[in-house]
Write a structure and sequence with these properties.
Largest sheet: 5 strands, parallel
Structural class: alpha/beta
Protein name: Chromosomal replication initiator protein DnaA
CATH architecture of the largest domain: 3-Layer(aba) Sandwich
Number of domains: 4
Pfam families: Bac_DnaA, Bac_DnaA_C, DnaA_N
Main location: cytoplasm
Bound molecules: adenosine-5'-triphosphate
Strand content: 5-15%
Keywords: ATP-binding, Cytoplasm, DNA replication, DNA-binding, Lipid-binding, Nucleotide-binding
Radius of gyration: 27 Å
Strand order of the largest sheet: 5-6-7-4-8
CATH topology of the largest domain: Rossmann fold
Helix content: 55-70%
Number of strands: 8
Family: Belongs to the DnaA family.
């Protein structure tokens, strides 16, 4: 591999992993050797090596392959003889990247950051931030406006007004996006601020590693020296006693020093099973905001924004009116799934060179649409069926045996079996604690009646359509 090749690969990696990740993790790598399909790099610390291997190893390998270098594996190790030049001695740093920063504006950075970091500073380095997760790309709607406003407030800096900021919500609703946006914003406003973002799992990993290497004092010092600590998916440390203990002390030390803490989790602090009482109550001291499930308007807004982006990527590709509305209506599970659907749709349409029509979307996204269909909840089914037959919602779970009530109840049982992935005992529980055999009987009854009662089967078609959106 030539100096020029590695330089080009690094340029590609900036685009792939984002500038912050590049500067923190990739730039310090030194190419050492390539033999028998193994590309070896030296790294400043073992931790750095582990991190790069786990998070960027495959990116690096793929980019090397794209450049025409046959690489089956990449390895990272601390240099044994740092003074000795690496095997490709002429290749320490690509000229375009750091010797002539002016030639490459994407890699210029403040002089303070450009100075070599001491080893412990490298250990402090934040987990990789996704360059796309900024406030600019975060679409705000009713379900997330409070979380967004609180995140913005924290990112603006100034006096710490609520500590910690605790963001919670279901899968794929934008918690990580908001956390990265805060980290980007703070770093942009105050380049000197020591912002440490990591997942709770990484916190534990680093804690265990410090214990193993007998480096616990430096671990404590490092974590207590940050200006902003951001821990993602804190539910992960539930049930992990020593990690919780350490987290608690770190948390207290930072709050005492008036340093900002931002935490995310998949549920509210009090609802995280296995989380110590004292930690849960500490977490409740600041501002707790939740990201609600998306509504139609938010989903449409997100789709419009992403479609705009893809239009730039696939110029000439047309998208028919109504397609985004259809997707916003049908894919209600979470934003990650929504994004995945759009990505697939654009990629597929560009491959086959066709306009994105409703028909193409239905074809290409059949599996996602089917999976989304199953997301209808039993409560929703009960509500719609009760409305349709003009009975009270409480009658769905109540004991009344009158046919006027019992039949709609069986219809709701049947639809719950058809449209959700719940088991019969689970459905039974939602219908006032009925036994699973009662549910089975109800489902069978409706199946039999549908064959002979056209009114009932019309009702079911109608209800189904209503529920599936
Ligand atoms: N309001 C939004 N505007 C734009 N993109 C969003 C929004 N909400 C979520 N996304 C996108 O959806 C994807 C999933 O979001 P993110 O990873 O932040 O979810 P999360 O809540 O952290 O989920 P998990 O609990 O699985 O970690 C990301 O690509 C993110 O950019």
């Amino acid at each position: 591999m030539t100096e020029e090749t590695w330089g080009q690969v690094r340029e590609e990696l900036i685009k792939r992993v984002g500038r912050n990740n590049y500067l923190t993790w990739i730039e310090p790598l030194r190419f050492a050797a390539l033999s028998e399909g193994v590309a070896r790099f030296t790294v400043p610390t073992n931790f750095h090596g582990d991190w790069v291997a786990r998070n960027f190893g495959e990116h690096i390998r793929r980019e090397l392959m794209n450049s025409g270098t046959q690489v089956a594996r990449v390895e990272f190790a601390v240099a044994r003889h740092p003074a000795r030049p690496a095997q490709v001695a002429a290749d320490p740093v690509p000229a375009a990247v750091s010797e002539t920063p002016a030639a490459s504006p994407t890699t210029s950075r403040p002089a303070a950051v450009a100075t070599p970091r001491p080893a412990d500073d490298a250990e402090l380095a934040s987990a990789p931030l996704d360059a796309r997760f900024t406030f600019d790309t975060f679409v705000v709607g009713k379900p997330n406006q409070l979380a967004h406003a609180a995140a913005r407030r924290v990112a603006e800096g100034g006096p710490v007004s609520f500590n910690p900021l605790f963001l919670y919500g279901g899968v794929g609703l934008g918690k990580t996006h908001l956390m990265h946006a805060i980290a980007h914003e703070i770093s942009a406003r105050t380049p000197d601020a020591r912002v440490l973002y990591l997942s709770a799992e990484q916190f534990m990993y680093r804690f265990v590693q410090a214990l193993r290497d007998k480096q616990i004092m430096s671990f404590k010092e490092l974590f207590r020296s940050v200006d902003v600590l951001m821990v993602d998916d804190v539910q992960f440390i539930a049930g992990k006693e020593s990690t919780q203990e350490e987290f608690f002390h770190t948390f207290n030390a930072l709050v005492d020093q008036n340093r900002q803490i931002v935490i995310s989790a998949d549920r509210a602090p009090g609802e995280i099973k296995g989380l110590e009482e004292r930690i849960a109550s500490r977490l409740q001291c600041g501002l707790i905001v939740d990201l609600h499930p998306t509504d139609y308007e938010l989903r449409l807004g997100i789709l419009q924004q992403k479609a705009e982006f893809y239009r730039g990527q696939y110029p000439g590709l047309k998208i028919a009116t109504g397609v985004l509305e259809f997707l916003a209506h049908r894919i209600t599970s979470n934003v990650r799934v929504l994004e995945g659907a759009l990505t697939r749709l654009f990629a597929f349409a560009s491959l086959v060179g066709r306009e994105i029509t409703l028909e193409l979307a239905q074809d290409c996204l059949a599996d996602i649409l089917r999976a989304s269909d199953r997301k209808v909840s039993i409560e929703e089914i009960q509500r719609k069926v009760a409305e349709h037959y003009n009975i009270r919602l409480s009658d769905m779970i109540g004991p009344k045996r009158l046919r006027a009530v019992a039949r709609p109840r069986q219809v709701a049982m049947y639809l719950s079996k058809q449209l959700t992935s719940r088991s019969l005992p689970e459905i039974g529980r939602r219908f006032g604690g009925r036994d699973h055999t009662t549910i089975m009987h109800g489902v069978k009854k409706i199946e039999e009646l549908m064959a002979i009662d056209s009114q009932l089967s019309d009702d079911l078609v109608m209800l189904r359509r209503l529920l599936e959106g």
